[in-house]
Write a structure and sequence with these properties.
single chain; mainly alpha; 3-stranded antiparallel β-sheet; 72% helix; 6% strand
Length: 243
């Protein structure tokens, strides 16, 4: 099946424009007046869904990023619609008002992550798409120096995402970071130098997914070292013991 890259490119541009408009209007969410409809958000979700539906034609990273965009838009749409149902009641008790206030605070916290994720995902989608169009149009690979620069940019982008994720844990769950460090130190004291994530999870009580991200963050700032062993990464505190 022929891929209509121009159509996909226009959809990605539209997704970017819609998100910029949504960023400007997000503060309206605090009023939640009955006259404010969600057509703008529904349009964002529809465009994201169209991109996701066409993404299997391109496969690879583009398809993964398109699914991520759709998932994030769905989460925001669900959260706003759920909150709207809470405030539509003509009479609200003190408990209901407290629930609404708590929901708004959670929404604001989610928006910070959502906004960053959507912006980054759209930028990556554009980069992937332009690369595919370039390659298919030229019928050859880009010059080696261009490929090298792209790789370095992707590497920096991945490190930035790791750092932002780590800062999030430091701010919201500092005890988890402490527990992960202590778990490594505990395993070292028992004679295990290089520690797998599952063992960190076992000793710290921090779920594996979160423990892995925290370990990557600690590695990025130089507190922890890592190496690959048997297809998985293992970690140790820097300067602890000999290899």
């Amino acid at each position: 099946m022929q891929v209509d890259t121009n159509k996909i490119r226009e959809l990605v541009k539209e997704a970017e424009a819609l998100h910029k408009d949504f960023q400007k209007g997000f503060l309206r969410a605090y009023s939640f007046s009955s006259s404010w409809n969600f057509e703008e958000l529904k349009k964002k979700f529809d465009v994201a869904s169209q991109i996701a539906n066409m993404s299997p034609l391109l496969e690879g990273n583009f398809e993964r990023l398109a699914k991520e965009l759709q998932k994030n838009e769905h989460q925001m749409k669900f959260r706003l619609e759920e909150l709207l149902l809470l405030v539509e009641s003509p009479k609200m008790s003190f408990t209901e008002k407290a629930r609404i206030n708590a929901s708004i605070q959670r929404l604001l916290q989610f928006y910070r992550v959502y906004d960053y994720s959507i912006t980054q995902t759209i930028q990556k989608l554009r980069g992937e798409l332009e690369g595919l169009i370039f390659i298919s149009g030229e019928k050859k690979l880009p010059p080696a120096n261009v490929v090298d620069k792209i790789k370095r940019i992707k590497n920096l982008d991945e490190k930035l995402e790791l750092l932002i994720s780590f800062i999030y844990y430091l701010y919201n769950s500092p005890s988890w970071v402490h527990k992960v460090e202590e778990a490594l130190r505990d395993w070292h004291s028992k004679g295990l130098l290089w520690v797998e994530v599952r063992n960190v999870e076992k000793n710290s009580g921090v779920e594996r997914e979160h423990a892995a991200k925290i370990l990557e963050g600690l590695t990025l700032i130089g507190i922890v070292e890592k190496r690959e062993r048997g297809g998985e990464y293992v970690y140790k505190l820097r300067g602890f013991g000999e290899d």
